[in-house]
Write a structure and sequence with these properties.
It contains six helices and seven strands; from the N terminus they run ααβαββαββααββ. The protein has 217 residues and is an alpha+beta fold. The mean pLDDT is 89.
Length: 217
């Protein structure tokens, strides 16, 4: 592994740890409360908190394992329904966001799945007040197209994240952070497969699109 890959992996690990801190911390707090609580009603609330926090931590781990890691095995294709399930899990505590899944293919290239998940992560984080998340993908003759659209009353887009999607080259930029590392990785995956990522953002609508060539490494 090169130093560049090590730096990027470290940033992605930092992002993962940051996002797991809240549900794991809630688990710890719930266990402490449960140990000192004798009231049946309060113990039930503690157990509910533990259940909710455990599910949130598990869903995040499953999502990041495929979005950042090597989940999905060594094959070139990944079941598209797995990606849908992971995105739905990411929204389990975000009832104000409605998912519209428009992916017709039963399977997608692993590179396409990784790009799709990371674009969805950006879109979900932008929908701070809820809204619609539309996920689309089509496969043509030797290529895969992906589009993720987020629309809502107010989108909290981060220019640093959107800019990281189009940073060229394999070297990790000096200003890359745990928050922007996943976007940089998604952009590099697209470029390494003969494609790129396009961004359209008008304040109330965010569209992230990508096209990759099949069979390219």
């Amino acid at each position: 592994m090169t130093a560049t890959q090590t730096d990027l992996a470290s940033l992605l690990c930092s992002r993962l740890c940051h996002d797991l801190l809240s549900p794991v911390g809630a688990l710890n707090n719930g266990l402490e409360l449960l140990a000192d609580e004798n009231d049946p009603e309060m113990r039930k609330r503690c157990l509910d908190l533990l259940d909710e926090s455990a599910r949130a931590a598990a869903q995040k781990l499953k999502f990041y394992r495929l979005a950042f890691g090597a989940a999905g095995g060594f094959g070139d294709q990944v079941d598209a329904s797995e990606a849908k399930s992971l995105i739905a899990g990411l929204l389990v505590d975000k009832s104000s966001i409605k998912l519209d899944w428009q992916v017709s293919s039963p399977a997608m290239p692993k590179a396409g799945i990784k790009i799709l998940l990371n674009l969805c992560l950006i879109a979900v984080e932008a929908l701070v007040r809820g809204g619609d998340l539309v996920v689309m993908s089509e496969q043509g003759d030797g290529h895969t197209e992906i589009a993720v659209r987020a629309s809502g009353k107010k989108l909290a887009t981060d220019d640093a994240i959107l800019n990281a999607l189009s940073v060229a080259g394999d070297d990790v930029p000096d200003d890359l952070t745990p928050r922007t590392a996943a976007a940089f990785m998604a952009g590099n995956i697209a470029r390494n497969h003969g494609g790129s990522i396009q961004v359209a953002n008008d304040g109330g609508l965010l569209v992230l699109g990508a096209m990759i060539q099949l069979g390219q490494a």
